[in-house]
Amino acid sequence: xxxxxxxxxxxxxxxxxxxxxxxxxxxxxxxxxxxxxxxxxxxxxxxxxxxxxxxxxxxxxxxxxxxxxxxxxxxxxxxxxxxxxxxxxxxxxxxxxxxxxxxxxxxxxxxxxxxxxxxxxxxxxxxxxxxxxxxxxxxxxxxxxxxxxxxxxxxxxxxxxxxxxxxxxxxxxxxxxxxxxxxxxxxxxxxxxxxxxxxxxxxxxxxxxxxxxxxxxxxxxxxxxxxxxxxxxxxxxxxxxxxxxxxxxxxxxxxxxxxxxxxx
Length: 264
Prior knowledge:
This protein starts with 14 loop residues before the first helix and ends with a helix. A two-stranded antiparallel ribbon has the order 1-2. By secondary structure, the chain is mainly alpha-helical. The protein has helices at residues 15-62, 64-67, 84-93, 115-128, 146-156, 158-161, 184-193, 208-223, 237-263, and strands at 168-169, 175-176. Strand 1 and strand 2 (175-176) form a beta hairpin. The chain has 2 domains: 38-134, Cytochrome Bc1 Complex, Chain D, domain 2 (Orthogonal Bundle); 135-224, Cytochrome c-like domain (Cytochrome Bc1 Complex, Chain D, domain 2).
C-alpha cells in the first residue's frame, strides 16, 4: 500500500516576514509622498509671507512718509490700497517712485531698488486689497500684430504720445513721456494702471492681446529708425517749421547779405 505525504496546510516560515517587509515599504512610501505634498503646500505660504514682510519693511522705510504707514495716503501722496502689484512694478520699476521732489508729474529717473525688492513691495501692496496683478509673459512678449497695434496706437495714444511715440506736452507743466526703448512690462503696466494723466485701458477697452499688439508696434519702432532721414525728434510740423524758419530762412538771409556785400 502506497502512503502519500499529507499536506499540513502551513505557510512557509518566511511568508510573514515578507508580508511585513512589503507593508513597511508601502507605508513608508505613502508617508513620504504625503509629507512632501504637505511640505510643498506649507512652504509656498511661508515664502509668500516672508516676501510680504520684507516688502512692508521696505515700504515703511521708503514710501510711508508720503503714502501712510498702512498705505492709506496723506496730503503728500495718494493711497496705494487697491492699486495692485502691477502699479508698484511700473512706478518703482521705472524710477518714478520714490519721487525726488514734489512736482506736477513724477519723472523717470534711475531705479532705486533691485527687482526682488520691487517684487517684495508689490507683494505687500497687493496684500492690502485686490488690484491689477502682473500679467502672463505672453501678453507682453512683443510677438503680436505690429500693424494692428499701430492702428490701435493711432486711435488711442497718438494724440498725447505722438504717432511715433516721441511724447508731447500737456497742460500745467505735465507731459506725455516718450515711449522709446521701454521694457514691455512697463508699457503694459501703464496701459492697465493709467498713471497720472493717462487713462486706464482695462480689458474691456483693449484686450490683453491688443495691448500686446500695441507693445509689438512700439518695439518695432525701436528697431526701425526713420526711413525718411533725420527725424527732427519725430515732433512733426513743430520741429519741421522751426527748422525751416531758423535754418532755411536764416540761410537765405545770409546768402542775400553776402551777395549784397560782394556787389558793393
